[in-house]
Amino acid sequence: MFDVRVIPELSSMILTLLAVLILFWGLSKLLYKPVSKILNERKEKIQNDIDGAKVLKEEAATLKSEYESKLLDARKETQEIIESGRKRGEEIKEDIIAEAKKEAENIVEKAKREIQAEREKALLDVKMQAGEMAVLIASKIIEKDVDLASQQDLIEKFVDEVGTREWQN
């Protein structure tokens, strides 16, 4: 039968230990260094990606800040344009009102002149008609024929006297 021992033989232990050391050395040369190299490369790539992301984040923050600044400037400029337009509109409104008032005053003045001219014309017509009537009445009273030239002289004299104190007395 088999002989079972609790403690292995020394030669077997040394051979096992030697095999493990050779295996460890072989694996470290063949497997550990390449895996370490791959892991280090991966680590460096991840670190570069993180650094690149930080740079991009900073650039994005800078661009955001610039955008917000430009947006604020655009809003201010828009407000200035609106305010300028409002002021210009008020100026135009005031100019139009002033022009309309001036035109209205001119129309009123023209109307006053026309009324005065019509009044003077009407007064002259009334004077002429009154003179003609006075001559007719006077000729009826005198019962004499007045020729056209003397009638005209009488009318002109009467017209000149109409409205004066002599005529009213």
TrEMBL record:
It comes from [Clostridium] ultunense Esp. The gene is atpF. It is found in: Cell membrane; Endomembrane system. Residues 57-121 form a coiled coil. Belongs to the ATPase B chain family. Component of the F(0) channel, it forms part of the peripheral stalk, linking F(1) to F(0). F(1)F(0) ATP synthase produces ATP from ADP in the presence of a proton or sodium gradient. F-type ATPases consist of two structural domains, F(1) containing the extramembraneous catalytic core and F(0) containing the membrane proton channel, linked together by a central stalk and a peripheral stalk. During catalysis, ATP synthesis in the catalytic domain of F(1) is coupled via a rotary mechanism of the central stalk subunits to proton translocation. GO terms for molecular function: proton-transporting ATP synthase activity, rotational mechanism; proton-transporting ATPase activity, rotational mechanism. It is a single-pass membrane protein. SUPFAM superfamilies: F1F0 ATP synthase subunit B, membrane domain. Its main location: membrane. It comes from the Bacteria. One of its GO terms (cellular component) is proton-transporting ATP synthase complex. F-type ATPases have 2 components, F(1) - the catalytic core - and F(0) - the membrane proton channel. F(1) has five subunits: alpha(3), beta(3), gamma(1), delta(1), epsilon(1). F(0) has three main subunits: a(1), b(2) and c(10-14). The alpha and beta chains form an alternating ring which encloses part of the gamma chain. F(1) is attached to F(0) by a central stalk formed by the gamma and epsilon chains, while a peripheral stalk is formed by the delta and b chains. Keywords: ATP synthesis, Cell membrane, CF(0), Coiled coil, Hydrogen ion transport, Ion transport, Membrane, Transmembrane, Transmembrane helix, Transport. This is ATP synthase subunit b. The chain crosses the membrane at residues 12-32.
